[in-house]
Structure formats: structure tokens, C-alpha cells
Amino acid sequence: MLDFLLTSDAIMALLTLTFLEIILGIDNIVFISIAANKLPEHQRGKATNIGLTLAMVQRIVLLFFVSALISLKEPFYSISTSWLQLHISWQAIILFSGGLFLIYKSTSEIREKVETPEHDSNEVKGKKINSLSQAIVQILLIDFIFSIDSILTAVGMTNGLSPNHNENLVLMIIAVFISIAIMIGFANPIRKFINTHPSIQLLGLAFLILIGFMLITEAAHLSETELFGKTVGAIPKGYLYFAIAFSLFVEFLNFRITKKKKQ
């Protein structure tokens, strides 16, 4: 287990996944702050910390559930025609459905942030909260909605890294734990930074489109799909790491240029 976690692939996956989990968690932090701010001053910090801690437990439970489904690799149905061959398993269905969901959710989020950036915040503001327990329930419901794309991202980044299913699960849990801990400790500075540089969050959502496409191709690869005699191969995760690193480097250069112009 320790040998796997210290490999370059596992470290790169952990760093990339933690970064994406934090970027994806920004909206979560904003909505949690809105819910907590409806409470008296002395209860706000407590509601945020309890809510995020329970959210972490909720995500880990969901990770176990999704991982159990992904471990079902045996095909239960096959299709064989003159132009298409594939062997369908629950693993392939989960990966394919998850990929489609990530692409849909990411493009929808990008459109909303460009056209109606305050839409979701206004919905949360409109809900009444009269007690600490109500605030925590509201925070858990908000986090459950945001957990879906977060968990699918974790699955996409770790699936196939190790033949041992449990090692991939441990890597996902570590990434979730680190990202939630960072959000608890540095929620306000992270939120201010993203508000100042909204393109970072848009980049994170764009990365989800790549991960969604990667999940779809991986589902086709694991199903041994052949289309017109051509086998569908899995996309190496190194391509994804390079795309993310290159995009962040370009964004860093853009940030430096903008800062110098202001000075």
C-alpha cells in the first residue's frame, strides 16, 4: 500500500485531484457561508466546521459505494454485430454514465457562471434557517449535490492507477480528507483568491470536461469495444496531467502580466 502511494503516478494523481477537489469546493464554501451567515455570530464558525466535517464523512461513504460498483468488472451482456462489439459490465456503465454527467454538469456550470453567476447563491439566500441543526442539514444537502461531480472526478483520476482496488480507494479518501481540511482552514483566503481570479474556477470546470471524456473512453476500453474493427484504447493519464499543468502555467503567466499592467 505504502509503495503504491509513493509512486510518481499516485503522487501526481493525489496532487491533481486535491487541487481539483478544492477548486470544485469553492462554490460549496460560498453556499455554506451563506447558510451559516443566517445564524447568530457565535454559531457561524461552529456550523461551518461541523457541516464540512460531516460533509467529508458523507463523501467518504459515497466513495465506498461508488467504488464497490466500479469493482463489478464481470460483463453481464455482450453485443456483437458487423460493425460493433462490446462486453458491458457495471464498471463500464458507471464510468460511462459518470463521464456523460461530468461533461453535462461542467458545460452547464460554465454557462451559468458566464450568464447568471448569482443564480445558485440567490436560491440559497432565499431559504430560511432558524437553528444550528437546520443550518447543518442545509449544508449537508448542499454538499451532497456537489459531492457527485467531486466523486466522479476522483474515480476518473484514480481508476486504473493500481490493479488493487483498495489502493485506489485509499488514494481518493486521502485527497478528499486533504481538500476538506484545507477548505476548513483556509476557506476565506481561497474564496477571495477565486473571486479575484474567476478564470481559475472556469479552468477547473474545463478540466472536468476532459476527465468526463476520459471516463467515457475508459468505459469503452474496459468493455473491449471494437468499432468498425478498431479497438478503443484508454487515454493515458499523463496527457491529462500535462493539459492541467500547461493550462495553469498559461494562467499564471496571464496573472503576472495583468498584475504588472495594474502596477
UniProtKB/TrEMBL annotation:
Membrane topology: Multi-pass membrane protein
Broad class of the protein's primary localization: membrane
Location in or out of the cell: Membrane
Manganese found in the keyword field: no
Ranges that cross the membrane: 12-36, 48-72, 84-104, 135-157, 169-188, 200-219, 239-257
InterPro entries per UniProt: Integral_membrane_TerC (IPR005496)
Taxonomic superkingdom: Bacteria
Keywords: Membrane, Transmembrane, Transmembrane helix
Family statement: Belongs to the TerC family.
Protein name: TerC family protein
Organism field: Corallibacter vietnamensis
Lineage: Bacteria, Pseudomonadati, Bacteroidota, Flavobacteriia, Flavobacteriales
